[in-house]
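Suppose you are handed a protein chain with no further information: no name, no annotation, nothing but its sequence. What can you learn? This example shows the usual starting point.
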Amino acid sequence: MSINKQLFNLYDKYWEQILVELSKIDKKLYTNPLLINIDEDAYARADYKVMIFGQETKGWYDSSGFTDSIIEGMDRYDRFFWQKNFYDGYSKSSFWKKFRVFQKNILKMEKTKDLDIIYMWNNISKIGQPDQETGVDPITRDLERKYFSVVAKEIEIIKPDLCIFMTGPNRDHDIKFHFPNIEFKKANDIDSIREMAVIECLGIKGLRLYHPSYFGSFNNNYKKRALDALNEIIKDH
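A reasonable first move is to predict its three-dimensional structure. Written in structure tokens, the prediction is:
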């Protein structure tokens, strides 16, 4: 069964109930859930798979309105990410700037420089706030945890070799909710676990970092230490 068919079946398992629950609250509190769509050809070619997590969607496809169709939701991901129909201001986004930094630099690392690498985007919270607002509303976080807890299953289906969580330490509780057995360890002798952590869950290693817009803390020195930590993780793969 294809990856996208498996993802569709996963979402379909929870979809009716989350739509019922979301219909009970004000649509101003939430965006359409983020549903992943994989470029199957690129995935099949890839020697190495990297998934990069952000926090949550910021006005995710809000201009197109809410859809109750899983297929349309997955198509929106495809159009935005794989077909690169990005929103206005994409080039200025701190998250996407750092996403591109990791794309570029992982390609240069000794262990991966000759590999065909696929990069995928995900968010630790599937339902963000609309109207370009950041953060997660407590009501929708609770609903997502009760009725649309799909992140761990996405990982099991997609099987990335490396996960990068640019989510910041204040969202560790969201990571731990989805991956109760996750381990957080120091990444180096400089940064505390709160500042940067090597993580392992479901047999997949990765790195949890500050969110790129965190008060300038994601500076060049921090970026270099993050790339060094990723290089060590990849070397041990």
